[in-house]
Write a structure and sequence with these properties.
The protein is mostly helical. The protein has four helices and no strands. It has one domain. Helix 1 runs antiparallel to helix 2.
Amino acid sequence: MQQKRPWIGQSLRFGLVAPLIFLVDFGVLSLLATGGVPPLLGRLGSLAASVGVGFLLNRAFTFRASGRASFGEFGRYVLAAALGIAVNYGVFALALRAGAPHAAAIAAGMLAAALVTFTRFRAIFAR
């Protein structure tokens, strides 16, 4: 039986994927920070890693896309994520400026970006 509202299950799975993406993001940022990379610069590297992992997890688990992944699909995902990345980075920077610890700043950025990106990602993988 096909689910009448697939977005409900997808949004729940999207929420389950988020902590894994957070761990990648925070782990890479922490690793870079131990190497002396400033947090705002390190976040660019951690965002790149988290977008790659997010694509794979969202494609396979959240939206259960069929067929093989393609560079075109990944390109559309990255473009759709660009606004989310800008929102994520902006909220992260504001939270750091307000004195939030790195983990809380990442979480705040991710939450804001999730609100922006879910519908775009859903449209990409529905093809």
